[in-house]
Amino acid sequence: MNAVLVSNANKSFSDHGRVIRALENVSLDIRSGEIFGLLGPNGAGKTTLISALCGLLELDSGSVEVFGKNVQTQRSEVIPQMNLVTGFAGLLHGLTVEDLLRYYSFLYPIKDREKAIEEALLVTNLVEKRKQMAYTLSSGYRQRFYIAKALLSKPKLLLMDEPTVGLDVETAIRIRELVSSLKSQGITVLLTTHYMAEAEQLCDRIALISDGKIVALGSVSELKKMAGKPHASLEDTFLKLTKKNLEEEEDE
Ligand SMILES: Nc1ncnc2c1ncn2[C@@H]1O[C@H](COP(=O)(O)OP(=O)(O)OP(=O)(O)O)[C@@H](O)[C@H]1O
Ligand SMILES: [Mg+2]
């Protein structure tokens, strides 16, 4: 079974009378157990798609299924299966890492809360920071905290919107190792990133999205072949495939 199946998703926003088509007939599947990359320029529709996937945003038309269940109509069955990591969540002041995880754990129906907290601290290498005030964490550790928080609910699908944005080289490497380790635990990961090397290293398959449309989908080597240059860098491939989409639009 696919972890995710998006069928003909459409979403428009209106901005001062102007219509923005954030998602235009988007269809894709994410296989169970893979790390799937969603890549595209700023404003391409990545966060919109992630929001639709986790039920935070209603589509105008089309559907999203997670592990065979419809996100809109079978919400209570779908939501416990997934969690979201974005770099832009807030931290509560005045609580230590450990206490804040305990606080968040009450969001979820967890049988053994303390065990889940220990596991989340361990997987994200936060054990030594457990007594530190959460709001004083550096960005890299803060990012680990968000991942730990998301892992509390033992998700089968983890949505990660730019998990390494703004991190230094070494911290980003650590977070990537962490993402790989999630895969080896059988967790399906959907990841957005603007770092091509990261996508190349981590992702089994990648969808390129531009102006709300999927312009290509495949493994890194398949994408390179689609762009007509099997030995080109992913960066060049990305530019070629996303630009092609723009050129087609201009021709219309
Ligand atoms: N609530 C909203 N109201 C109006 N327009 C919106 C809203 N949310 C998103 N948009 C617009 O939809 C388009 C897609 O935005 P989205 O945030 O999905 O892009 P993105 O691919 O995540 O970009 P980035 O790489 O910058 O994070 C953009 O043009 C954005 O301005
Ligand atoms: Mg975004």
From TrEMBL:
GO MF term set: ATP binding; ATP hydrolysis activity
Keywords per UniProt: ATP-binding, Nucleotide-binding, Transport
Stored CDD domains: ABC_DR_subfamily_A (cd03230)
Annotated ABC transporter domain residues: 4-236
PROSITE patterns: ABC_TRANSPORTER_2
Alphabetical list of InterPro entries matching this protein: AAA+_ATPase (IPR003593), ABC_transporter-like_ATP-bd (IPR003439), ABC_transporter_ATP-binding (IPR050763), P-loop_NTPase (IPR027417)
Similarity comment: family membership: Belongs to the ABC transporter superfamily.
PANTHER family: ABC TRANSPORTER ATP-BINDING PROTEIN, ABC TRANSPORTER ATP-BINDING PROTEIN NATA
Protein name per its UniProtKB record: ABC transporter ATP-binding protein
Organism: Candidatus Iainarchaeum sp
